[in-house]
Amino acid sequence: MVYILLGNGFEETEAIAPCDILRRADVPVQFVGLGGREIPGGHGIAVCADITAEEMNLDEMEMIVLPGGMGGVHSILDCPAALDAVCHAWAGGRWVAAICAAPTILAKLGITDGKKATCYPGLESQMGSAQMQSGAAAVQDGKLLTGAGPGTAIDFGLLLVRALRGKETAKKVYDGLVYRLARPE
Fold first, then answer.
1. What is the DSSP secondary structure assignment for residue 120, as one 8-state letter?
2. Strands 63-66 and 95-99, how do they pair?
3. Distances (CA, A) of 160 to 29, 50, 52, 58
């Protein structure tokens, strides 16, 4: 099971795009609400979580994903059950993933120490001793996966699929998305 944590003010794209991409790869995913089931995102899009933080089954967890958004990051930091789940995942050799501002949570927990990582531009000073990969959309270092921000949510989601189900499955999902970069003119 992949758990995606949703705290009040989370970045919607960084939660929904990876969830969708994982589900296209037939990976079981649940949104985890911190403080309830109806969680408002940072841009006014509320998402109904599948379960609450207290309902997570940590023994079934294959990966935990932390979307960014400053409100969401503060919600995770203020939720002991969420922090316990992240620490449990890391200590148990499971996948730990965070995007945008959320890698700073992993830095506070010492998870990124000495690891290659990326985060939202400008937050590098909050990443402790991580080996920052500036300009990277998504980075993997062992069981640690990080992404740079909302515009990289698809790359991040595809990296999660690749980690969990391999390159071939990630390529099939990529092809099915008809993923193309378009720049505003």
1. S
2. parallel
3. 12, 20, 22, 19
- 40, with CB counted inside 10 A (0-12, 13-18, 19+), is middle
- Per-residue model confidence (pLDDT) at position 182: 74
Q: Alpha-carbon distance 139 to 159, whole Å?
A: 8
Can you give the pLDDT at residue 185?
Answer: 73
Average pLDDT, consecutive stretches of 10 residues, N- to C-terminus, the chain (185 residues): 98 98 98 97 97 97 98 98 98 98 98 98 97 96 98 98 98 94 75
Of 80, 81, 132, 79, the residue nearest 104 (C-alpha)? 132
| Paired strand residues for 102 | none
CB 99 within 8 A of CB 10: no
Using CB atoms within 10 A of its CB, is residue 87 exposed (0-12), middle (13-18) or buried (19+)? middle
Active site residue 100: yes
**How many angstroms separate the Cα of 96 from the Cα of each of 36, 44, 64, 92, 176?**
23, 27, 5, 10, 26
Q: What is the amino acid identity at position 153?
A: A
Strand partners, 140: 145
Q: Indicate the pairing of strand 46-48 with strand 38-40.
A: antiparallel
Task: Tell me the two tokens of residue 180.
Answer: 């193309």
Catalytic-role residue among 19, 79, 100, 119: 100
